[in-house]
Design goal:
single chain; alpha+beta; Alpha-Beta Plaits; 2 domains; 4-stranded antiparallel sheet
């Protein structure tokens, strides 16, 4: 068996090695280019975010400064004036919720036959709520007293008391009643009011 190489130049697979080296070099170059592009992209993104964060911090500091200036410039008199206006607005809302129909229905169910209502003047009191001044004409004190009892029985009228009483030219009693009115109390029918009077 011959163990020597008879060719003048031994054959090596140089071409396959060069191809594999070229493929490896291309892969390394592609990976390097990809990494460089990512580094550049993230670097630009980081710069942009850092700039935006700095801008946001400056804006927040500016807003804090403006808030401190506004707090320092608040005048207690202006605050009191605004609360006064708010109270007036609430009073107007309370007046708007006042129902004349409900009130007159209550008077109709509680009014004895011998009593007539001349006038009704509502006003808003900060402590008592809706206060009514009701002027009535009756034949006597008993009729006015019956009307007061009927009003108080509804639960919608409290602290009913005569503020002024006098006789008119016909001998009838003119009485001015002062009372607190809370809408929404129970209704009393007219028949029961008459029975109470008897």
């Amino acid at each position: 068996m011959i163990r020597t190489n008879l060719s003048t130049r031994p054959f090596y697979n140089e071409r396959a090695v060069h191809v594999w080296l070229a493929v490896v070099a291309v892969l390394v170059l592609a990976a390097t280019a990809f990494n460089i592009s990512r580094v550049l992209r993230y670097s630009r993104s980081d710069t942009r975010l850092a700039t935006q964060a700095a801008r946001d911090e400056a804006r927040a500091a500016d807003l804090r400064k403006q808030a401190a200036q506004l707090r320092g410039s608040v005048d207690p008199k202006q605050v009191e004036f605004a609360s006064s206006n708010a109270r007036e607005a609430n009073d107007l809302i309370d007046r708007r919720t006042f129902s004349w129909t409900e009130l007159l229905n209550r008077f109709e169910t509680t009014l004895p036959d011998e009593v007539r209502i001349r006038s009704v003047k509502p006003r808003i009191d900060r402590e008592r709520g809706i206060v009514l001044t009701v002027s009535v004409v009756a034949r006597g004190v008993d009729d006015v007293q019956q009307f007061i009892e009927n009003l108080e029985a509804t639960g919608a009228f409290t602290t009913v008391r005569p503020a002024q009483e006098q006789l008119d030219e016909h001998g009838q009693l003119e009485s001015v009643l002062d009372m607190t009115y809370t809408p929404g109390g129970k209704q009393v029918n007219r028949g029961r009011a008459k029975e109470t009077r008897r």
